[in-house]
Amino acid sequence: LNKHKAVLTRIRAERDTWEQAARGRGDDGDGSAANRDSTMPHPTAFTGDEKDTAKRTSQFRTWQTRITARWLTRPKEFDSEDKKILYAAALLEGTAAGGVFAGIEKITSNPA
Length: 112
Known about the structure:
Blueprint: H1 2-25, H2 53-73, H3 81-90, H4 94-98, H5 101-109
Helix pairs in contact: 1-3, 1-5
């Protein structure tokens, strides 16, 4: 478990680095307003810990929609499936994060 937590910590640090770099430029390199963090903040992490199935499903769909929107409005930042997966994984916590540890470890230890 500690090994998996370390991987997620590293992924979150990478996400923060991307965010800081984007803030330093003010955008994703193309100057469009849609690429500025102030117009589209990072989604809140999804935990999957909600006991009520309907609420949990709603929380997941909101999280998923926000992540997908970020990918679509920042194509230069998310130019590979690995980057998309790692970004989404960095925004998982609790039960949801536990379910993806093994897969994320494969990606981070065997980059293409």
